[in-house]
Specification:
Layout lengths: L9 H33 L1 H6 L2 H55 L6 H17 L3 E4 L6 H11 L1 H21 L6 H33 L1 E4 H46 L1 H19 L1
Parallel strand pairs: 1-2
Helix pairs in contact: 1-3, 1-6, 3-4, 3-8, 4-8, 5-7, 6-7
Length: 286
């Protein structure tokens, strides 16, 4: 049976996972670097208890961990998406073939091969557009389209990227107010930071819900590629059906030849006599 994750899409999945890992690593390196810098600037105990190797490790190890974790997670998620798209292509090709055959059967005048292919392409395109995506003209998505897709897939990463600096900035602003004790600074930071993060979360999830209802953005080239994939699936389906039909015809032909050989050799008559003899024995027993 054909796989749901075809080999020709492996480079696409690997590139997507690598880009996700690089982006997450860069986002993680900012707070790790800032944290080590602030610790060296404000804590003599930290400076005395660490050397340059340990400080370098504190800067680079969290980003490297996040690179491995996020790229592996993205790879698994993208493979599931590819499997879903492949399954959708197969079901759509089968549905389009059934609709097409029904239309040809009910047509008053014969449909030419060119019109037949055009109708199938239109059905394939309709299936792609109704699969939860929005087609953008062109071969490449704009920056705002890419950001919207990333927002839909990873809203909490965006929340962390903007939320952590916001809370840190609030604490930095409160630390400049000399009349506040440390406990008061932490309390004020928690209150204002919680309000800021919750406000961000509501906005992020609201836009994610909008994207979930309307679908992510794909390019015209990607939509055409899915149509071509459905056309290839249809051809493969027809080839398998023709092969199964041919194999069944060969099997019936072999059965017919074997039957004629049995008739010629008299095996069929012997079987009938044997069956009649068994019937007579049963009558005697009764």
């Amino acid at each position: 049976m054909p796989t749901l994750t075809p080999q020709h899409r492996s480079d696409e999945v690997a590139t997507s996972a690598f880009q996700e890992g690089i982006l997450t690593m860069a986002m993680t390196m900012v707070p790790s670097s800032v944290g080590v810098y602030l610790a060296m600037k404000n804590s003599q105990k930290f400076v005395k208890s660490t050397n340059w190797q340990s400080r370098t490790a504190l800067v680079i190890m969290p980003p490297l961990f996040m690179f491995a974790f996020s790229s592996e997670t993205k790879h698994r998620h993208r493979m599931l998406e590819v499997a879903h798209e492949t399954e959708h292509s197969r079901k759509s090709a089968k549905w389009a073939e059934e609709v097409h055959q029904k239309a040809r059967k009910n047509a008053v005048t014969p449909i030419s091969e060119a019109d037949s292919e055009a109708q199938l392409a239109e059905l394939y395109r309709k299936s792609v557009e109704s699969s939860g995506v929005r087609v953008v003209p062109g071969a490449k998505l704009g920056v705002h389209h890419q950001f919207a897709n990333y927002w839909q897939e990873s809203p909490f990463k965006i929340l962390g990227f903007f939320g952590v600096p916001t809370v840190a900035y609030i604490f930095y602003g409160k630390s400049g107010q000399q009349h506040l004790q440390f406990q008061s600074m932490v309390m004020h930071t928690r209150v204002f930071g919680q309000f800021a993060v919750i406000s961000m979360l509501l906005g992020l999830m609201g836009f994610k819900d909008y994207m979930d209802r309307n679908g992510k953005f794909i390019t015209e080239a990607e939509a055409d590629a899915r149509v071509e994939e459905m056309r290839a699936v249809r051809e493969d389906l027809l080839a398998r059906l023709n092969h199964e039909k041919r194999m069944k015809e060969l099997q019936n032909e072999e059965i017919h030849k074997a039957h004629e050989l049995d008739v010629k050799e008299g095996n069929v008559k012997k079987m009938k006599k044997k069956k009649k003899h068994i019937t007579n024995m049963e009558d005697i027993d009764e």
